């Protein structure tokens, strides 16, 4: 059985994330979407809210499970009995960072492989940060995130102002 982890903060989940989730779930028996609780960042959504949003948008993918985690990815992978990490690449700058992380993870856990999927062209520009910036200025984010996420983003941004 091939079990992989697609880790990220998903703050918020975008169509780019969903593209990688759909495509990678077709390559493995089970895909665990690992929602990172990163204390170094100030996310728009709590981990619980991000998990709930992801659960809603992947509910039709039978082999996808959403699980929150904190700490080292390699330790999370061991707990989940996963031997593969999936990462999406949008640009060369992503590759440089992701290659460094993949090599670090390989040193920390020699039996953990990282697989890179290039983002579909239609999502190559898209990031959660961009979505939050567009939403903060009242822009239309419907082409960037699932419908169930739009109202949540707008409500969070209203509360922050």
Automatic annotation (TrEMBL):
Give the family this protein belongs to, as stated in its UniProt record.
Belongs to the bacterial CoaD family.
Q: Which gene encodes it?
A: coaD
Could you tell me what this protein is called? Phosphopantetheine adenylyltransferase
Instruction: List the Gene Ontology MF annotations in alphabetical order.
Output: pantetheine-phosphate adenylyltransferase activity
Positions of the site: Transition state stabilizer?
A: 17
Q: What biological function has been recorded for the protein in this entry?
A: Reversibly transfers an adenylyl group from ATP to 4'-phosphopantetheine, yielding dephospho-CoA (dPCoA) and pyrophosphate.
Location in the cell: Cytoplasm
| InterPro entries (UniProt xref) | Cyt_trans-like, PPAT, Rossmann-like_a/b/a_fold
Annotated positions binding ATP = 9-10, 17, 88-90, 98, 123-129
Please report the stretch or stretches of sequence annotated as the Cytidyltransferase-like domain: 5-133
Tell me the organism. Answer: Dorea acetigenes
Q: What is its main location?
A: cytoplasm
- Enzyme Commission identifier(s): 2.7.7.3
Q: Which cofactor does it need?
A: Mg(2+)
């Amino acid at each position: 059985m091939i079990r992989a982890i697609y880790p990220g903060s998903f703050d918020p989940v975008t169509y780019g994330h969903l593209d990688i989730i759909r495509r990678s779930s077709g390559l493995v028996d089970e895909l665990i979407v690992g929602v990172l609780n990163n204390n170094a960042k100030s996310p728009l959504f709590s981990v619980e809210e991000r998990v709930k949003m992801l659960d809603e948008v992947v509910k039709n993918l039978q082999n996808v499970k959403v699980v929150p985690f904190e700490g080292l990815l390699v330790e999370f992978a061991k707990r989940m009995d996963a031997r593969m990490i999936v990462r999406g690449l949008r640009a060369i700058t992503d590759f440089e960072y992701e290659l460094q992380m993949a090599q670090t993870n390989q040193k920390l856990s020699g039996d953990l492989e990282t697989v890179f999927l290039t983002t579909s062209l239609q999502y190559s520009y898209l990031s959660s940060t961009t979505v939050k910036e567009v939403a903060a200025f009242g822009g239309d984010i419907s082409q960037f995130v699932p419908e169930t996420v739009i109202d949540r983003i707008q409500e969070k941004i209203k509360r922050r102002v």
